[in-house]
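so my prof wants the structure for this chain in the tokens format not the other one, which i didnt know existed until like an hour ago. anyway here's the sequence
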Amino acid sequence: MSGLKASHATESVASEKVSVSNARKDLARLVNQLETEPNKVIELDRRDNPLALLLSFDVYNPIIRAFQTANLNTILANLVANKWLGTQNVPAHIHKPQLEELESMDTSQLLMLFEADPSSELDTLKKKGKLNETLVARLIKRSRVAKVIADAEKENLYETAEHLSGSKTL
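here's what i got, hopefully its the right format
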């Protein structure tokens, strides 16, 4: 069984211990290894920095579970959507179509989006032809809309409950 596991794993065929900070830096290589070497087990070493593991658990634990359930693209698509759209109160009519589009992308494209800086790297990736320009353009637009909604919520100008129910209060 291939997969990322916490360092307390006792059995492994071909294993590699990777610190959490190195896993963060080298996620693409780890994903490629797990796709090409089905018996490989990569253990996340908790001794690197306990605080780093706590801070990154929300990001890396879904990836760990993804390899165990063989549902990598769905998990990576969720991580990309959360990174670009935010995690709080994004309306379903923005989040759901974005998630569906991301799930249609291959693993390498999702990793590029996951590792990319939303503000700068995308133009470079689009120009090199590595990402679908239409999908990336929609991702950028939805990201901007989600940011405007988040900013409006901070100023108490927008309430998700109103938006979801369709009723307006004055």
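also thought this was worth mentioning. Residues 133-154 form the longest helix (22 residues).
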